[in-house]
Design brief:
single chain, 374 residues, alpha+beta, 8-stranded mixed beta sheet, 13 strands, globular, binds adenosine-5'-diphosphate, binds manganese (II) ion
Amino acid sequence: STAHLIQVIMANFIAGETNKTIADRLMNLDISKCGITQCMYIWIDGTGEGVRAKTKSVNFVPKNAADLPIWNYDGSSTGQAEGRNSDTYLYPCAIYRDPFRGGDNKLVLCDTYKYNKLPTETNHRKACKETMDKAAATKPWFGIEQEYTLLGQDMHPFGWPKNGFPGPQGPYYCGVGADKVYGRDVVEAHYRACIYAGVNISGTNAEVMPAQWEFQVGPCEGISMGDDLWIARFLLHRVAEEFGVVATLDPKPMTGDWNGAGAHTNFSTLAMREAGGLKEIETAIDKLSRHHIRHIKAYDPNEGKDNERRLTGLHETSSVHDFSAGVANRGCSIRIPRDVAEAKCGYFEDRRPSSNCDPYQVTDVLVKTCILDE
Ligand code: ADP
Ligand code: MN
Ligand code: MN
Ligand code: MN
């Protein structure tokens, strides 16, 4: 029965808990004179959403990704290769400080290549980098608002009553108080972890659905948007793991009168940011209006299927089927912030990307449509 299954799952989680006092004692050992840097290689798996990681010791302190060796893993265990031909390559792309291990230890963001050295199906970084290099002179900036939901060990939203629902939405957005927000420890710990790592995190807030939160990364130029957001996501899952909760990027974790989760993507070029840039913004929006389906396909890892559950036209979303744009309107595909309309320059917000989107795909297609006319 379901009840029994849940009992078994709960028992496993409890069995998986460890003594953090003992862990802390060993994590606080000083290994700085041992001549070893722990490098945690991180990559996107075959789902296009999951992150995987494994660690390599090196006997030097890397200054940038190019200092580190190419490595490999068993792609047949991540949905990225056949068992008979499983070796898949990890190419270091960017390095960050490791907030868990501290010291000189690193997080190493990698992209993935098949046995024949072609990118894997979920390696969207390679193409994105090529696009960003072509558009570099226009200085494209992005800021992504990553919404997510914390789940308890029963996979029900964290802090929600076990057999029911909290009161209707209203008091929770940017809420304060034990009856308004659930899981702030996770959010605060994650924020600090991102700052330490070197992620350009610019803020956090509690969201409309209780146990739903947001953090913002940006403005980031070019490829660093995707890099920083993926590391921020890795850190979110890793911090949540430490607290024994789960962070999900599902765009509609609860059906009914509950908000879904998105990854609003704010975008500008140098010309948009300069005096009179509103004209550039309007030109870009006009181009976007002619490529709605192309963008919806790139805005979640299942080519629009995930967003169909979220972009209903309700709960501060536009319909997945229509393109629309407006000033200060949160029911549109594209929103021009009021202060941008008044200043006649700045940026615009694309509200369509799903919470589980790949930021490399999102930023790639924005630049292709709005700048490169590709
Ligand atoms: P909202 O009002 O939609 O909730 P947020 O404050 O959560 O907006 O997020 C705004 C985002 O816009 C931030 O990630 C910020 O980095 C980004 N941003 C600000 N200025 C620019 C710009 N000129 N170009 C691109 N992104 C920008
Ligand atoms: Mn926001
Ligand atoms: Mn939000
Ligand atoms: Mn927004």
